Request: fold
Amino acid sequence: MRVFRHDWTLRRRGMQVRFFGLSCLLFLAYPVGAIGSSSIWLALNLIAFAAGYCRVIIRNTPQMHRNRAPVTVLLTLVLGGLLIPALHYDWLSGLGVFAAIMLLINFPLQWWRALLVGLIGSLTLIAQFMLHAERNSVVVLLVLLVIVGTVQVAVYKQIETSMQLQEARAELTYLAVAEERLRIARDLHDILGQRLSAVTLKAEIAAQMVGRDPGRAITEILEVSATARGALAEVRAAVSGYRTVSLRVETESSEALLTACGVTVTVTGPLSLPQLANETAGWVVREATTNVIRHASAQQCSITVTDEGDTFVVQVADDGVGGTLSEPFSYGTGLTGLTERMEIVGGDLDVGPRDGRFVVTARIPADPQFAESAATRRSGSGRPRRTRPDRPDPRPYGENARTR
Reply:
């Protein structure tokens, strides 16, 4: 609907230009009145001139200055010049108006100064040496052409600016829709990834406990139901745009989930950060611990938050099989989305093996304004530095290819 409205607006602007150009045919009232009963040649020439003028206007609207009828412009001006000996000086001023309109509407605006100077010079020579017009009449003709040309340029530039504004608004609308879709895609992946991992884990435990410990099985099934309801609520909140993430809540949730998987968890550092850093840090912990559950087969995992004054460093490290990874690995949807989140706030994300552990390190600026300048200094190009390795193919990770 927005695209249709945008196209319709541009077309309406162009039709206004067309109506203005065709309405100038009223200037033909004098030459039509001057045609006598025996002036068949004059009538045919005038009709051909009007037809050429109309074709130039119609060919160059609703989109102007595209040089779509240069030959027609030339032939029409030649026809108009042939009418000068028969219609004399009064026709010369009307021809100047028609010529100015055709030249401006057909050729690019950057040519207009040269075209206007050439038109004024040509008509001045014709009036002075061919029609022998008085000097005062020539001056009036020049003033008329300058006024007409200036008004035309002002009107057409205003219309062109309005068209560009409409195009910019349509582009901004498209970008806003694309950004919202990207946000929803990131949120849905991060939400469902961890929640579905928890549902799978709890369901497997319940299946194992049905025969040995029915009470424990019932507890696990109830937790599966609660986790599924929580995931549904978070999905609805993400789609509606009202969902927020907390570092403390995500850390506690991840700790509980990792403990249920048999992973020993240690949490150190402050869990209460400023709002923007707090939400971003929550996403980092959620995605990193989800990858530990899915891929790592780890025994220990540490979540560390460090306050460096102007930057918060969030680090999630595990002793799983990723710590011994010597080959490149590819980013999956989760780390790709997390990298994009870090870029939004001007932070950095570093992922990979380090000292026998697989480590996810995020540097999150405490102040978004400082983050923008810091990111500019780091990258040297006005954009945050991305540490994601650009490697096209995933490499073996244990028995399977690793994609985080």
